[in-house]
Amino acid sequence: MPATPPLRDVFVVDDDAFMVATMTAMLARLGEFTVHGYTDARAAFAAIRDRARASDLVILDINMPDIDGLAFFRQLADVGYQGCLALCSGESDAMLRTTAQLARAYGLRVNGSLPKPPSLELLRALLGGCASGAPPHARRRERTQEELLAAIDAGEIFCEYQPKVELAGGTLRGVEALVRWRHEADGVIPPADFIEMAERRGAISPLTRRVFDLAVAQQAAWKRQGLDILVSINASVLDLGDLDFPDFLKRCTARHGVDPAAIVIEVTESGLARDERVLTEVLTRLRLRRFQISIDDFGNGYSTLAKLRDLVFDEIKIDRGFTHGAATYERRAAIFHASVDVGRRLGMKVVAEGVEDRADWDFSRLNGADLAQGNFIARPLGADALVVWHDTWMRRHAAPAEVG
Fold it and tell me: Residues with Cβ < 8 Å from 335, sequence gap 6 or more?
């Protein structure tokens, strides 16, 4: 990935002339770049529009009378702006976080938010973060259907496994299988570079079947080693529309000698919005065959409460966006609590996804979740590495307070 070039130009866009002058003077003390101050959002956009360089920074007021900050950064995204973006406002922290999330959804590189007036230290930290970041357009290319199908045939698809542990005692209860692609020339290709393409191009079914075969075989191998744990595997929304899918899974577990109850099918919440008749039939047949069903990314989808009313699920996974930072952010905590309450009342296990630090672990443990998953516990691991991790984890883990 190419290094980000040093900053060349910084644009301050704010309808308050005093604020523009103040920030311009402060920035002039902090680096060898040119500062451009604008109180007119249209003029500022015209100056930036034809550049779209990775060496620029825009510090943007989100509440302006002519073009507000949301319209401004949407236009930046439309012209392919590759530089840094920082939001500066007197609005609430919640409003700044929401606005930053929207800007990132447009593919912009948001490097921070600043209160009004910002301090010299905050501006210096912002500039440092901008200099060390990488533009979102530096991703590797999306792969083709033909490449993926060839990779499946060549055995280049493999799985890593992320542990799911009990919050109350630290015991390993399961893992989530995460697909990877080991390319001869390009190394390990992340799923973001091929999953969406596979769904669009009709290659998701052979990929899903390969992943299930690998993960079910691995569950059997671990059990022979004395490690009897659940293995969770993601099902594409397209798999849920395939009436043969439950029969395939039953044949797969039978071939490897695995109890279907040891396999958890993770269904993304948005996947529950598909054709109700087919979805209900597929999920019901999976339950009849004794597979467990989990709702993944709970809180991030659509019309889920009706599905919870009509279908039987074993597990609910609270989306990481409501777990990570919930100890600090009130709105995330409120959604976390509501999700736990729904899971408890319906007799489901509750998994806190995205446990990234000790604060997330403590919050999840003290607020009713049963299991935790995230980088604080372990990053995704190869099958052999997971066994080594488990031995180390259990030796270290005498009580919840000692985790980490």
Answer: 299, 322
Pairing type for strands 187-189 and 172-183 reads antiparallel
Cβ proximity of 241 and 279 under 8 Å = yes
For position 396, which CATH number holds?
3.20.20.450
Same domain assignment for residues 253 and 314? yes
Give residue 112's domain range: 9-138
CB neighbourhood size of 4 (10 A): 19
Cα 272–Cα 276–Cα 280 angle in degrees, nearest 5: 80
CA distance 399 to 101: 37
Q: Residue 60 burial (CB < 10 Å; 0-12/13-18/19+)?
A: buried
Secondary structure (DSSP) of 133-146: ---GGGPPPPPPHH
Distances (CA, A) of 64 to 36, 45, 129: 18, 13, 26
pLDDT at 138 over 60: no
Statement: residue 399 has pLDDT above 50:
no
Is residue 3 one of the residues assigned to a domain?
A: no
Asked, for residue 81, whether it belongs to a domain, the answer is: yes
pLDDT at 321 over 80: yes
Does residue 134 sit in the same domain as residue 151? no
Tens of pLDDT, residue by residue over 94-132, are 777 778 888 887 788 888 788 777 888 888 888 877 765
Write the pLDDT tens digit of every residue in 175-192. 999 999 998 878 888 888
133 and 158 within one domain? no
